[in-house]
Amino acid sequence: MKRKGIKNLIIDFGGVLIDLDRQRCIENFKKLGLPNVEVMLDLYHQQDFFHNYEKGLISSDEFRSILREKIDKPVTDAQINEAWNSFLLSIPEYKLDLLLRLRKDYVVYLLSNTNDLHWQWSLQHVFPYKTFRAEDYFEHIYLSYEMKMAKPDVEIFQKVLDDTGINPKETLFIDDSEANCRTAETLGISTYTPKAGEDWSPLFK
Description:
- There is one protein chain.
- With 205 residues, this protein is α/β, with parallel strands linked by helices.
- The chain is 44% helix and 10% strand.
- It has ten helices and five strands.
- The chain has helices spanning 22-32, 37-40, 48-54, 60-71, 77-85, 93-105, 116-125, 144-147, 154-164, 178-186, and strands spanning 8-11, 107-112, 140-143, 171-174, 190-192.
- A five-stranded parallel beta sheet has the order 3-2-1-4-5, sandwiched between helices.
- Helix 1 (22-32) runs antiparallel to helix 5 (77-85).
- It is globular.
């Protein structure tokens, strides 16, 4: 990568770093009695309240309230949290080691469409490794729910470029969504789209 003039990396979270299990999440919500959960969690046609939650336009309490209304029976916050967070699995240790190595040669940023419940769970369960925490792997962490904007909208990429001052021509964006990568490319950012479960570390050998 160095010979191509890449100095900065912008890396996605879900599906690129952390492994996901959508089906497990669906099954757990079914057990709670959530109707049409497959439709709600459709990867390409998620219902509006999921997008609003990822954009930080509704709070975790409001998100749970919407789900509770749809379930239409008493369920606790903890039950909803557990079902929702079951979407998340783990970050393979080799990827955490890779991030630490990449920081020696590149300026590394995280840019994720995520939400408060998923991120807080991840801070506690998947980033702690040896003596490291989430902030040790990245120069800065950009999260959709904190920024009130989300990929693939061009504004979130422009915000990262403006905030960091990095040159898009010297930047590689790694994201598992073709749509997100296409938007980044319109700004002059190089992209790579790994497949689910792919080990993309050979990019840097």
